[in-house]
Amino acid sequence: MPSHRYRDVFARVPVEPLARTWPDRRLTRAPLWVPVDLRDGNQALAEPMDPERKRRFFELMVAIGYKEIEVGYPSASQTDFDFVRLLATSELVPDEVTIVVFTPARPELIARTLESIQGIRGQVVVHMYAATAPVWRDVVLRRTRDELAELVRAGAEQVLRSAGESVRFQFSPEVFNLTEPDYILELADQVTKVWDARPERPVILNLPATVEVATPNVYADQIEYMDQNLPRRDGVILSVHPHNDRGTGIACAELAVLAGAQRVEGCIFGNGERTGNVDLATLALNLHTQGVDPMIDFSDLDRIRETVEYCTRMPIHPRHPYVGELVHTAFSGTHQDAIRKGLAARTGERWEVPYLPIDPADVGRGYEAVVRVNSQSGKGGIAHVLETAYGVQMSAAEQVSFARHVQRHTDATGREASAAELKTLYEEVYGCSN
Ligand SMILES: CC(=O)SCCNC(=O)CCNC(=O)[C@H](O)C(C)(C)COP(=O)(O)OP(=O)(O)OC[C@H]1O[C@@H](n2cnc3c(N)ncnc32)[C@H](O)[C@@H]1OP(=O)(O)O
Ligand SMILES: CC(C)C(=O)C(=O)O
Q1: Pocket of ligand 1 (CB under 6 A)
Q2: Distances (CA, A) of 426 to 65, 198, 390
Q3: Among 7, 148, 156, 198, which is most exposed with the fewest C-beta within 10 angstroms?
Q4: Strand bridging mode 236-242 / 167-174
Q5: Ligand nearest to the CA of 179
Q6: What is the DSSP pairing of strand 203-209 with strand 167-174?
Q7: Name one GO biological process term (predicted).
Q8: Where are the domains of the chain?
């Protein structure tokens, strides 16, 4: 492998020395969540969502409790523009929900974005971004640091000039994680000054790991450094937007919250460009399994999954955390045995069943699928299936002997044996069901 072609993160961006405190902190409450499925998720789809899909997705997000939702990139397409117009001119946005519209720092596209929210009743966040990392400055935007700072200042002023009282402001230095920290502080100072950041009307400063390039501790250090050094800190909502290129988007988000992030952007099951945005459902349910209320209702996870799959036209992997079809299922014998004993030993509300980090019932699933039988299974799992599906009670000796029959059967077929198949086999072996 030509690994010499790549440099580690420390060779690409200065990571400032830091008296870090995040490793000693705990996650004790949910951050502000902002699903960006209708913008960042949407821009990753081969077929972007049509108006009906956008609306269905939006209504789902409102129904499960999101209070701030990025709804589109109005200057990107007529569909995006029209959807924002629909929200601005209808009753679809409840009073307690704020929508976010996204724009690059280009004057004509800012103007189009502001046009899309004309006459809106409730609160709206105008989210402006510009890529700030050196390669993007030099190669993509072809601007020096000062020239790019000027573009951002002009964009912030344009937004301010045309925005009414109901507008709040957000800035994202795209590729924050590869941008020099002193430059981020300079831009943060500039936008928070132009937008008059104060606690009563805070500015959202969103620090994306646009392309994930480092272990999560590095991102956490970068976020804590900003938390400690940002100008007008009490007038800023510090937000993060992790992607999942190294497969550690979840860890980046969790450590970033420990490090001082107050708000997290992502997509509900992690859709997004390349390997996706951070997965908001996983983040929320991770909190739930630590005893922290995520403030979003995932109690009917399969309904949420069906809507997301319909809107994105993409299936969710069977091993996807919490929601995958197989994540509450054990095929392997010793795990089935432990689950069976754990389920039987339950007392009270506390959930401590081996190998099941969450009670499937919390997310609307039953217990039928927690144990399924194939050639990797053992007597405990087989007995569990027959008992729960048909009330068959086997003695310890019978369990041992029947398991040998099942093993021969599953070895011969190479397949899973359903509860019905097990019952038929049981009747063949013992003459009748007990
Ligand atoms: C990390 C992110 O997710 S950022 C969001 C990315 N999402 C999208 O791009 C989806 C929607 N985008 C679009 O529909 C189109 O790209 C549009 C309408 C925004 C722009 O389309 P076009 O005018 O055809 O330009 P194009 O797509 O080629 O963009 C490149 C231009 O934008 C400029 N640009 C890119 N980002 C920014 C920015 N944040 N602020 C200002 N200018 C920018 C580039 O420098 C380039 O300018 P140049 O042509 O002078 O070199
Ligand atoms: C500009 C922003 C928020 C973004 O989508 C990203 O950096 O990934």
Answers
A1: 40, 43, 73, 75-76, 104-106, 109, 129-131, 140-141, 174, 210
A2: 48, 72, 11
A3: 7
A4: unpaired
A5: 2
A6: parallel
A7: carboxylic acid metabolic process
A8: 3-312, 333-430
Residue 408: how many CA atoms within 13 Å on its side-chain side? Answer: 7
Residue 176: nearest ligand to its CA?
A: 2
Could you list the pLDDT tens digit for every one of the 434 residues in the chain? 999 999 999 999 999 999 999 999 999 999 999 999 999 999 999 999 999 999 999 999 999 999 999 999 999 999 999 999 999 999 999 999 999 999 999 999 999 999 999 999 899 999 999 999 999 999 999 999 999 999 999 999 999 998 888 899 999 999 999 999 999 999 999 999 999 999 999 999 999 999 999 999 999 999 999 999 999 999 999 999 999 999 999 999 999 999 999 999 999 999 999 999 999 999 999 999 999 999 999 999 999 999 999 999 999 999 999 999 999 999 999 999 999 999 999 999 999 999 999 999 999 999 989 999 999 999 999 999 999 999 999 999 999 999 999 999 999 999 999 999 999 999 999 986 55
Residue type (1 letter), 51: P
Q: How far apart are CA 61 and CA 280, in angstroms?
A: 11
> 21: helix, coil or strand?
coil
Superfamily of domain 3-312 in CATH is: Aldolase class I (3.20.20.70)
The continuous run of DSSP H or E covering 255 comes out as helix 249-258
What ipTM does the predicted assembly reach? 0.96
- Whose Cα sits closest to atom 48 in ligand 1? 141
Q: What is the 3-state secondary structure (H, E, C) of 62-95?
A: HHCCCCEEEEECCCCCHHHHHHHHHHHHCCCCCC
Ligand 2 pocket at CB < 6 A: 40, 129, 172, 174, 206, 208, 210, 241, 243
370 neighbors 329 (Cβ within 8 angstroms): yes
Question: Taking Cα atoms as reference points, which of 324, 216, 328, 206 lies closest to residue 269?
Answer: 324
Ligand 2 center to 241 CA (angstroms): 7
Q: From the alpha carbon of 36, which atom of ligand 2 is closest?
A: 5
Numbers of helices and strands, H then E, in the chain: 15, 8
